[in-house]
Amino acid sequence: MLSKAHPKYSYKYGVQDPHTGDYKTAHEYRDGDVVKGSYSVHDPDGTLRTVEYVADKENGFNAVVHKSGHANHPDHYEHY
């Protein structure tokens, strides 16, 4: 008889590139049938979007999105 291994892992990821303006983070962990994590990314309007999520067999995938900061929109765009 085969026994099932108890799935368990965790990871973290991040980018901070001032040259391109690419800033983001992510982390996730799993313990058995439950996965929890979050990620954040700077949106083009200058706000920070953070998504926190949980997934399991009973409730499926559930996410909550938070926006922080103040949106900054230019008055006009240059045409080249």
Keywords:
0% helix, five-stranded antiparallel sheet, mainly beta, 59% strand
Count of discrete alpha- or pi-helical segments spanning 4 or more residues = 0
Mean pLDDT across all residues, rounded? 90
Low-confidence stretches: none
Q: Helix fraction?
A: under 10%
Beta-strand percentage range: over 45%
Radius of gyration, whole Å: 18 Å
Per DSSP E runs of 2 or more residues, the count of β-strands stands at: 5
Q: What is the approximate shape?
A: elongated
Instruction: Quote the distance from N terminus to C terminus.
Output: 68 Å
Helix-strand topology string: EEEEE
Explain what the structure shows.
There is one protein chain. By secondary structure, the chain is mainly β. The chain has no helices and five strands. It has a five-stranded antiparallel sheet with strand order 1-2-3-4-5, with no helix packed on it. The relative contact order is 0.17.
Structure, briefly:
The protein has 80 residues and is mainly β.
Q: What are the SSEs and their pairings?
A:
Layout: E1 8-17, E2 22-31, E3 34-42, E4 48-56, E5 60-68
Antiparallel strand pairs: 1-2, 2-3, 3-4, 4-5
